[in-house]
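Need tokens for this chain, all 83 residues.
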Amino acid sequence: MPIPATYRIRPMRPADVAAVIAIEEQVKPNPWTASGYQHELAGNELAHYVVLCHDEAVVGYGGYWLVADEAQISIIATHPRWR
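Here are the structure tokens for all 83 residues:
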């Protein structure tokens, strides 16, 4: 019997940025740069990003900025093959 694939949502890590950019370049007309995501992850306390993994591969991601008691969704994206 095959082992079913697992999906997991977890916080985005700096090591995920290359996979996120690869998706971003396919789905957005004006993609962010790797340095933009690195800055958000390291230096913006208001920014929160997650990745969706199929087994260990990043297949989607999302982010929001939390200001006071309000969240603003900044991005939700899925790799085209996983839509």
